[in-house]
Design goal:
Elements: H1 7-21, H2 25-37, H3 42-47, H4 56-65, H5 80-86, H6 88-92, H7 97-103, H8 118-124, H9 126-132, H10 136-143, H11 156-162, H12 172-177, H13 197-200, H14 203-209, H15 220-226, H16 241-247, H17 249-253, H18 258-266, H19 281-294, E1 317-322, H20 330-336, H21 342-347, H22 373-385, E2 390-398, E3 401-403, H23 406-413, E4 421-425, E5 430-431, E6 441-443, H24 449-463, E7 470-471, E8 474-479, H25 488-501, E9 508-513, E10 527-530, E11 555-558, H26 559-567, E12 576-580, E13 595-598, H27 602-619, E14 626-629, E15 633-634, E16 639-640, H28 650-659, H29 664-673, E17 682-688, H30 694-701, E18 709-714, H31 720-729, E19 734-736, H32 745-755, E20 762-767, H33 777-789, H34 792-802, E21 806-810, E22 815-817, H35 826-836, E23 845-847, E24 852-854, H36 860-865, H37 882-896, E25 900-903
């Protein structure tokens, strides 16, 4: 019919259609807001469509309903696809991107394109924007009538040269040449540059330095702007991200993207972007001054004050290695000079690169001398206060000669120092190189059968002390390097026999996996232990540094990679205790040649500690619930829990925060709830991360009218009172506290292992999401839960549909196309598919939001293809995590079972 009317009338009908397509007040309000914003360019919009006859009203309506889904841009400055890709919450909630940016996006520092830094622009023009109540992008366009293309995977220069999406305004470079115009993107030529951030970005360099990013789904510049700079990935050969962030604390604290900041204001302010040249003494001492200031209490938010705590009723035993080398001895005087102690090296350490935390300055205890027993008394008070179980003293014995043994002897002589302890025989050579090898030896080990027996005789009083740590009644004796013995199996047999003879009884032998990973059973030992970070496979990041010392030959590693290595742990067939370290840097002992871990913080340490404690609580029993910390006071290796002047008591506080989650009374209460039997064919699995949402969710659970088995996973810091409230409201609820890794996904997998053998017909998975990155997080959660269990009728409908050929039911509006929403998840999905021998189609649907009804058998392959080691450390990403991959894998699982996914 439309074909029969004149062309001009068709134009009229088309625009009228689009206008009345917005059939409610809310949609018309959006149209008016966009129309009044000054951010909709009719000519530019029409130029991107096959037809170019829409009026302003019709074009805005088209963009609101259809255009944004086609990745059409409303003006040369607003990149629709980029905005949706960068803000998956906007896409998932079917929000129009420009409308979202106008109402909330600019307030939340969301960027309209890859180069426009909203946060930085608002900081620079704050007064004018507030006074005139202007959107930052509109203000930028007002002052910069520049046509700019941000799409089609082309740089602005390429896009302009190729005539793609031709803008109606002048070329960017021409505009910059007009020095009278202030710019949100800087007056680059005036500052000595003739490129924008995109043109300053060297894609070839970026990919060569970061081969892990070579993937068809990754646009390098977009990766850099949204994520790469946060990972210290440099955008080109001349701009140094770590140096810039460490040098300019205002940029780091405000989390500003460094390259844009430099081009916009940094250069004009005289800031530098290059590595500090070696020999630049002034620059070095400026850096050192900043470092020292940061250690003053009150100068930094990193500092945590002392807090007195109550004793913790826990079964976990956290044992910290203890170095006694903080008092002078003749051997050290001879080797190093009169009065040498560990502090000699610690106090003279120097920072070797930008951001290097050296020297390390002690806090409350100062440069202590362990000949003063009051120091040991305070150390014990601190360790007890923050939940540690005991110390493992490094023990130095060389063929009958004991050294630096005074601290341990003072413990033995003073029974009022009531704190458990054990010893680790450091049975290697003592050298000036701190490596235990055969060069520059101070004291040499000479293992022999006679030496074996003499050593056991020597330590007998130690092992028989009432405070000595025991495992199943046996004193725990650790050997640092068993492979240095001529025949360690013979030594062990000799020890065990002689220990019985002299009244020690059975001993519990532990070897440290500090240099090798031998099965302890092969040499007669009872167990092994990690000695973090020794023997860890970690990421070398030395090439990213700004060196102060041109002769630096040390290696620098990423602390986060040590955590991920720890998470990727495979339980051996023998007993192995887990270990952590708060940080590590032996620069003090090996100036210019040390091994350093960067990016260590109390928060990351706490996450690592939490994981290891959860693991130990689950995989060990009785006296073997032990975790070793390296260390209490290894200041020469920057591995210490003791307070320092930068962090204060932060590492100790982090330790206590983790340990209190393993309250014995709370764990018993949880265990008692888990003994209830299956009562129904329907199970609800609730991940209750936000305990304050229990009352709201309970109202929805009441729609089951009691005919359901409820499995609840609570956050580990949930109190006994909060758990009892759930128990009172749902007496048969089974309550767990699996760690919140992979957000709600790993807890769901753990509960799946429990419920799959019980053969439930129906399972409903819900969780207490708040989606804090979304302005409508509460509404989205309520919509998801109420769509699934919002009434008895809805529950009845869901179970009836699952009786049909349906595997998963999801709330209406939350099914998405994998092809369109692959994001950065394809690698994990392909890896899972290969492991489970599944085919990945070009496209399929998957449920977003991680809440659904399902037939539990759908997920059997998920347990085959994933385990705890897949859930590595997250850093708050909005996409590309194992949780996001699992959302998509749900769709893949339904295909493999020939079942449908439908909305309800």
């Amino acid at each position: 019919m439309l074909q029969a009317v004149p062309k001009r009338f068709k134009l009229f009908l088309k625009n009228i259609y689009f206008f009345f397509y917005l059939n409610d007040a809310e949609e018309r309000e959006k149209l008016i807001l966009i129309g009044d914003s000054g951010l909709f360019d009719l000519e530019y919009y029409n130029s991107q469509l096959k037809f170019s006859f829409l009026t302003q009203c019709g074009a805005i309506t088209h963009y609101l309903k259809k255009g944004y889904k086609l990745s059409v841009n409303p003006n040369p400055y607003f990149d629709t696809k980029y905005y949706l890709d960068s803000n998956p919450d906007v896409r998932q909630n079917n929000k129009n991107p420009l409308y979202h940016f106008l109402v909330n996006g600019h307030k939340e520092d969301r960027n309209p394109n890859m180069e426009f830094n909203t946060q930085l622009y608002i900081l620079l023009h704050k007064d004018e924007l507030q006074t005139r109540k202007l959107n930052p992008l509109f203000h930028f366009i007002q002052h910069n009538p520049v046509g700019k293309t941000f799409g089609n995977n082309a740089t602005p220069k390429e896009a302009l040269a190729n005539g793609k999406n031709k803008p109606s305004a002048p070329n960017l470079i021409e505009s910059i040449k007009n020095k009278n115009k202030r710019s949100g993107i800087p007056r680059l030529l005036e500052l000595g540059f003739e490129f924008t951030p995109a043109e300053a970005f060297d894609e070839e360099y970026y990919l060569e330095l970061n081969p892990d990013l070579i993937h068809p789904d990754i646009i390098p510049f977009q990766h850099y702007m949204t994520q790469g700079w946060k990972e210290n990935r440099n955008p080109n050969a001349w701009f140094d991200i770590p140096y810039y962030l460490e040098t300019y604390k205002d940029v780091k604290d405000l989390e500003l993207e460094p390259l844009t900041h430099y081009l916009l204001v940094g250069k004009e302010q005289g800031r530098t972007f290059k590595k500090v040249e070696h020999g630049n003494v002034q620059a070095y001492f400026e850096f050192l001054n900043v470092q020292n200031q940061k250690r003053e209490p009150g100068m930094t938010t990193d500092y945590v004050e002392f807090e007195e705590h109550v004793a913790l009723p826990i079964d976990l035993r956290l044992i910290a290695f203890y170095l006694p080398q903080y008092h002078p001895i003749p051997e050290n005087d001879k080797a190093w000079g009169k009065g040498f102690t560990e502090w000699t090296n610690v106090s003279k350490a120097l920072a070797q690169f930008g951001g290097h935390y050296q020297p390390r300055l002690p806090g409350e205890l100062g440069y202590y001398d362990l000949r003063l027993i009051d120091i040991q008394r305070r150390q014990i008070e601190l360790a007890k206060n923050y939940g540690l179980h005991g110390f493992c003293y490094h023990y130095y014995w060389f063929g009958g000669q004991k050294v630096i043994d005074r601290p341990l002897q003072q413990i033995l002589d003073n029974k009022d120092l009531d704190f458990p302890f054990c010893i680790n025989w450091a049975n290697e050579n003592w050298t000036r190189r701190w490596d235990g090898l055969d060069q520059e030896v101070i004291l040499k080990q000479n293992h022999s059968p006679e030496d074996d027996l003499a050593f056991l005789e020597e330590i007998k009083p130690i092992l028989l002390d009432k405070r000595y740590i025991r495992v199943n009644g046996k004193p725990l004796l650790m050997i640092y390097r068993p492979t240095l013995f001529p025949d360690i199996k013979e030594t062990v047999a000799r020890w065990r026999k002689h220990a019985q003879k002299i009244g020690i009884g059975n001993i519990y032998l532990v070897l440290a996996h500090s240099f090798d990973k031998q099965d302890p059973r092969e040499i007669g030992f009872d167990a092994a232990t990690e000695f973090a970070p020794n023997n860890f496979n970690v990421k070398d990041v030395t090439h990213t540094l700004s060196l102060f010392n041109s002769k630096y030959s040390g290696r620098v590693y990423d602390y986060k990679s040590a955590i991920n290595y720890s998470v990727d742990y495979k339980e051996p067939t023998y007993t192995k205790f887990r270990g952590v370290c708060p940080s590590w840097d032996n620069e003090a002992r090996k100036p210019g040649k040390g091994s350093t871990f960067v990016n260590s913080t109390p928060l990351l340490y706490m996450k690592w500690m939490e994981y290891v404690c959860f693991y130990t609580n689950q995989h060990r029993a009785g006296d073997e619930k032990i975790v070793f910390v390296n260390a209490w006071n290894e200041w020469g290796e920057a591995a210490y829990l003791e307070p320092d002047r930068k962090f204060g008591y932060a590492y100790l506080e982090a330790t206590y925060t983790v340990l209190r989650k393993f309250n014995r009374d709370k764990l018993k209460l949880l265990f008692d709830t888990q003994n209830t039997q299956k009562k129904s064919d329907t199970a609800v699995v609730l991940h209750l991360y936000y305990m304050d949402l229990w009352d709201d969710i309970k109202l929805e659970l009441d729609h089951f009218k009691g005919d359901v088995d409820l499995y609840v996973n609570v956050i580990s810091k949930a109190s006994i009172e909060e758990i009892r409230k759930i128990q009172n409201d749902f007496p048969l609820a089974k309550i767990y506290t699996f760690e919140n890794r992979g957000r709600d996904v790993l807890p769901f997998l753990k509960i799946l292992k429990i419920i799959l053998p019980l053969k439930y017909k129906y399972v409903c998975k819900i969780h207490s999401k708040k989606s804090l990155h979304r302005i409508d997080g509460d509404n989205w959660r309520n919509h998801l839960i109420r769509s699934l269990i919002g009434s008895p009728e809805r529950i009845k409908e869901a179970t009836a549909r699952l009786d049909d050929n349906v595997g998963v039911l999801v709330a209406r509006g939350n099914l998405f196309s994998y092809k369109e929403w692959m994001g950065s998840n394809s690698e994990m999905i392909n890896r899972f598919a290969e492991k489970t021998k599944l085919q990945v189609p070009d496209d399929f649907t998957f449920p977003a939001g991680s809440m659904f009804w399902c037939k539990p058998a759908v997920f059997s392959k998920l347990l085959q293809g994933m385990d705890e080691s897949d859930f590595i450390l997250e850093e708050g990403q909005l996409d590309g995590t194992i949780a996001h991959a699992c959302e998509r894998i749900v769709g893949l699982l339904c295909i493999s079972e020939k079942l449908k996914i439908e909305e309800i």
